[in-house]
From TrEMBL:
<dbReference type="InterPro" id="IPR025287">
    <property type="entry name" value="WAK_GUB"/>
</dbReference>
<keyword id="KW-0863">Zinc-finger</keyword>
<feature type="transmembrane region" description="Helical">
    <location>
        <begin position="255"/>
        <end position="278"/>
    </location>
</feature>
<dbReference type="InterPro" id="IPR046948">
    <property type="entry name" value="ATL20-22-like"/>
</dbReference>
<feature type="domain" description="RING-type">
    <location>
        <begin position="336"/>
        <end position="378"/>
    </location>
</feature>
<protein>
    <recommendedName>
        <fullName>RING-type E3 ubiquitin transferase</fullName>
        <ecNumber>2.3.2.27</ecNumber>
    </recommendedName>
</protein>
<dbReference type="InterPro" id="IPR001841">
    <property type="entry name" value="Znf_RING"/>
</dbReference>
<dbReference type="GO" id="GO:0016020">
    <property type="term" value="C:membrane"/>
</dbReference>
<keyword id="KW-1133">Transmembrane helix</keyword>
<dbReference type="GO" id="GO:0061630">
    <property type="term" value="F:ubiquitin protein ligase activity"/>
</dbReference>
<dbReference type="GO" id="GO:0030247">
    <property type="term" value="F:polysaccharide binding"/>
</dbReference>
<keyword id="KW-0472">Membrane</keyword>
<comment type="pathway">
    <text>Protein modification; protein ubiquitination.</text>
</comment>
<comment type="similarity">
    <text>Belongs to the RING-type zinc finger family. ATL subfamily.</text>
</comment>
<dbReference type="InterPro" id="IPR013083">
    <property type="entry name" value="Znf_RING/FYVE/PHD"/>
</dbReference>
<keyword id="KW-0812">Transmembrane</keyword>
<dbReference type="GO" id="GO:0008270">
    <property type="term" value="F:zinc ion binding"/>
</dbReference>
Length: 385
């Protein structure tokens, strides 16, 4: 059998290899980033009244910003009064109230004329845009000009609410979540059923604003890490993330690790290699080095902290279908604490173990996916106490 060749490694080459492996490599490219701008609104100390900050993927197309500062379909404009506008291809212009670039990647819109329900009943559509509803909910609009009490929209247990901007004089328009509406349950004429993009999961009426979200480009994770999101090149359409703050040791400390750990380790490797090849040369016979057994591996378990509960756990909580009497263990337990709607016969409720509080199934399921505790007492069935 042929003898094993002596490896041609020098101390300099091994040190260079250790340095390359231990030190972080600098990215070769950086994204194209523009500055953060806003429409020139009136000075104010109230952040809720300040114009929204505009950054990638949005850009101001009439403020001398380059189209490369934003993504296609995310162009905004400013009114002479300083309002920020978004043009939806199939629905027209809307006022931009706020933009969330981080957790939900969402934009909150209002009707410049102050009556979003009128736009929803008109030609509102997201066709051709880059957006979709943040929280889509179906609502039914009713003409209750005769036989309805304008001061209360919850008669007969149905959570109908007045739409002020569509009601005047003897003409009254109300809205109700479609899942609670049944024909003939209210002395009103049905006008239309539309999908409303709600800003929050538990809203039960049509407000003056809606919230939309987008999937592409996804810059949320980049900004959460403190990076800058933008195009990777001057002419391409690929989006990337750059300037993410480092979370490890400073570069000088990494050089210290190379010198303090790498060089002694390198000397041990050289000494071991010299010993092995010396034995091979002395006995003049090929030997096959045995690989060291690898044992006692400790797998780092990643701990995922979830504030909500999973579907099997939620489904394990008891369900109850109400009879005609709507009777529950607590006589005063007649409304859902989440949506504030009165329980109706044949509705299905779910209760929380231990505290025995009842809720609509749809309401409590959506709550428990986000929070693992009871909305009323904040106790968790999984707590040891």
């Amino acid at each position: 059998m042929p003898s094993l060749p002596r490896p041609n490694l020098t101390i300099a080459s091994l040190l260079a290899l250790f340095t390359h492996l231990l030190l972080p490599q600098t990215p070769a490219t950086a994204v194209q980033v523009c500055g953060i701008v806003s429409c020139p609104g009136s000075p104010t100390n109230d952040l809720s009244l300040s114009p929204p900050l505009v950054q990638f993927p949005f850009w101001l197309n009439r403020q001398r910003q380059s189209p490369r500062c934003g993504y296609q379909g995310f162009d905004l404009s400013c009114t002479p009064g300083g309002d920020t506008l978004l043009q939806l291809p199939s629905s027209g212009e809307f006022s931009v109230k706020s933009i969330n670039y981080y957790s939900t990647q969402s934009i909150t819109l209002a009707d410049p004329d102050g009556c979003f329900p009128r736009r929803l009943l008109g030609n509102f559509s997201l066709t051709g845009s880059a957006f979709r509803p943040l929280i889509p909910r179906r609502f039914t609009f009713l003409n209750c000009s005769y036989g309805a009490d304008r001061s209360s929209g919850t008669s007969q247990g149905m959570p109908a609410t007045l739409v002020p901007c569509l009601s005047e004089g003897n003409y009254t328009v109300m809205s109700v979540p479609t899942r609670y509406y049944s024909e003939g349950s209210y002395p009103c004429e049905e006008l239309a059923t539309v999908v409303v993009p709600l800003p929050w999961p538990f809203w039960s009426d049509v407000e003056d604003v809606i919230s939309l979200t987008w999937d592409v480009p996804d810059c949320g994770s980049c900004r959460k890490r403190g990076g800058l999101c933008g195009y990777k090149s001057v002419n391409g359409t690929e989006v990337g993330c750059s300037n993410v703050p480092g979370t490890g040791l400073p570069r000088s400390a990494k050089y210290g690790v190379v010198l303090g750990v790498g060089i002694p380790g390198l000397l041990c490797v050289i000494g071991l290699a010299s010993f092995v090849f010396g034995k091979i040369k002395a006995h003049r016979r090929p030997t096959r080095p045995n690989a060291a057994d690898v044992s006692n591996l400790i797998a780092a378990q990643s701990v995922t902290i979830s504030m909500g509960l999973d579907r099997p756990t939620i489904e394990s909580y008891p369900k109850t279908q109400l009879g005609e009497s709507r009777r529950l263990p607590e006589p005063n337990d007649i409304t859902c604490p989440i949506c504030l709607c009165e329980y109706q016969p044949k509705e299905t409720l779910r209760s929380i173990p231990d505290c025995n509080h009842y809720f609509h199934v749809d309401c409590i399921d959506e709550w428990l996916r986000l929070n693992g505790t009871c909305p009323l007492c904040r106790n968790s069935p999984e707590d040891p106490s």
